[in-house]
Amino acid sequence: MALGPLWLGLALWGALHTQAQDSTPNMIPAPPLLRLPVEPDFQNKQFQGKWYVIGVAGYGFKKEDNNKLKMYIDTYELNEDNSYNFTSALGWGQNCDHWTKSHAIDLHVGQLNLGNIERYNNYLRYTTRVVTTDYNQFAIMHFKKVYNNKQEHLKIALYGGTKELPTELKELFISFAKSLGLTENNVVFTLPNGNHQLG
């Protein structure tokens, strides 16, 4: 697997972000979206389909949850107008909950924007970026919600085309999380579920 240029790009991003980061030790500022890496020449048709959520990272995650968070599925279904129907399927016991949202694709800046934002009273903006992907085995995603009170919520996710990924991709995900000001303690890898639990 040729990860050389990908490692270099994320390493450079980390160095730039560290230089610009706020010096307040307890604050983790969300980076401006325009400074985030994004998959060049994003192929919306190739990206659509089912992705297993292998890992997540963000302010609200703790490493001790590694044995608690179960794997779930994010599905991107491309519409005729080039928007996506985005569905998350999360298993709870023998049940499976689904959430579906519409995302418009802005190919100019390589990000997805939540459609019908007015339906979500507490959201000011909700953007999703495909940081990098090979369209088959893995993808690293960046999610940023901005609430009406200007509070920001950052989450990144490691997607897999299957339920298992090589260690080097998990290490790449951890490195990217650190480049955003998170620590390894903010990275959680999910527990694989049976297919009936994943909807």
Salient structural properties:
199 residues; Lipocalin; 3 helices
Overall mean pLDDT stands at 76
Query: Can you identify the CATH class?
Result: Mainly Beta
SSE order: HHEEEEEEEEHE
Strand order of the largest sheet: 1-2-3-4-5-6-7-8
Kindly identify the CATH topology.
Answer: Lipocalin
Shape verdict: globular
CATH superfamily: Calycin beta-barrel core domain
In the CATH hierarchy, what is the architecture at level 2?
Beta Barrel
Name the structural class. alpha+beta
Please tell me about this protein's structure:
InterPro entries: Calycin, LCN2/LCN12, Lipocalin, Lipocalin_CS, Lipocln_cytosolic_FA-bd_dom. Its main location: secreted. Residues 48-190 form the Lipocalin/cytosolic fatty-acid binding domain. Residues 1-20 form the signal peptide. Belongs to the calycin superfamily. Lipocalin family. This protein is an alpha+beta fold. Helix content is 17%, strand content 38%. The protein has 3 helices and 9 strands, in the order ααββββββββαβ. The two termini are 31 Å apart. Residues 7-27 have low confidence and may be disordered. It has a single domain (44-93, 100-189), classed as Lipocalin (Beta Barrel). Strand 7 and strand 8 (152-160) form a beta hairpin. The chain has an 8-stranded antiparallel barrel. Helix 1 (4-20) runs parallel beside helix 3.
